Amino acid sequence: MSDELLVVRAQLGNRAALEDLVTRWQRPVWLYVRRMLDAERADDVAQEAWIAVVRALPRLREPDRFAPWLFTIVRRATLNRMRRQYADRHDLVGDFESDVDRPHDGIRDPVDGLMDRAEMVARLAGIPVLEREVLVLHYLEDLSVEDCAQVCGVPAGTVKSRLNRARLMLRAHVEEEGERT
Amino acid sequence: MTNEEPRASAPEIVAGLHGTLSARARLRAVAILVVGLAGAVFLAALWWTEPGPLPVLTRVAFGLMMVFCLIWAVYGIWLLRSRVPLFATDRVVAAWIGLAASALTSSLLVVMTVQRGSGAWAVIVVATALVAVAAVLVVRAHRHRAALLRREHALTGGDPELLE
């Protein structure tokens, strides 16, 4: 059964469809939150995000665009928690809100083929929040660049730049480890 | 970080949503909105159709009671907008509750105004507008639900396995 059908049924008031939808997306939502926050807070934020999703679900106008809509809400819940957590650390959350698109330097996917998903997940903790977020959404949640842009509320070009920087950082990590071993 | 799993299972997440999804919460929000709005309209009509000028204190009391009712109505709107999900079927039920409350309030207003014999036409216009707005909400709720049902039918394509 497609997500769209589950969403439409949930919007009609079908409780079983809503529960199926939550069950289907529970792990991807949690994984996104976990990549952005520590384990202690991830469960709380995921639950908060689901409450916000259920409250907003009747107003979702495009049931076929459920995934980017879902992650927009999950991202907001995560961001709210990070804002509280790092209230006095402007370096992290301030940049989240007022990111300036840096020019694309034309380097393409230097880490493609260097590592699989599992390796990427293991290295995510060392990547800054903005870049980590697009890596998670694009590579781990399989959202397109356009959907990532919708979720993050930035132009697609910004997402591409962030992905590019993230790949460079990952490559640097890989090379650094290679030199050490 | 790679092999981590969420501590809360899907049924636990769903259980955590029970408060948000409870029928009682939805009914309460609709009742707060309907009673608040009906009360404000009723008091306004009562004030308007007073045959003579009212003492200052009575006017202040009317004003305060109207503000009180409007605050409850705004609270009901806020609940329905951001705290309590109203799904398509709930919207239909809520709209019919609104229509019934509007019809009742309007009938009371008209009877009361005719008995008093002052400002009858104005109150009849207000009462008719109240019922008309409630009727429009009923039509919109039914249309929204019908559109979702059509979409559901289109997505299942008559497949018996997908049909409930």
From TrEMBL, chain A:
Stored Gene3D superfamilies: 1.10.1740.10, Winged helix-like DNA-binding domain superfamily/Winged helix DNA-binding domain
Keywords: Sigma factor, Transcription, Transcription regulation
One Pfam family linked to the record: Sigma70_r2
InterPro entries hit by this protein: RNA_pol_sigma-70-like, RNA_pol_sigma-70_dom, RNA_pol_sigma70_r2, RNA_pol_sigma70_r4_t2, RNA_pol_sigma_r2, RNA_pol_sigma_r3/r4-like, WH-like_DNA-bd_sf
Coiled coil: none
RNA polymerase sigma factor 70 region 4 type domain mapped to chain residues: 120-170
Domain RNA polymerase sigma-70 region as annotated: residue spans: 21-85
Family membership noted in the UniProt record: Belongs to the sigma-70 factor family. ECF subfamily.
NCBIfam families xref list: sigma70-ECF
UniProt-recorded name of the protein: RNA polymerase sigma-70 factor (ECF subfamily)
Naturally occurring in which organism (per UniProt): Promicromonospora iranensis
From TrEMBL, chain B:
Highest taxon of source: Bacteria
Annotated protein name in UniProt: FtsH-binding integral membrane protein
Transmembrane segments: 29-48, 60-80, 92-114, 120-141
Keywords: Membrane, Transmembrane, Transmembrane helix
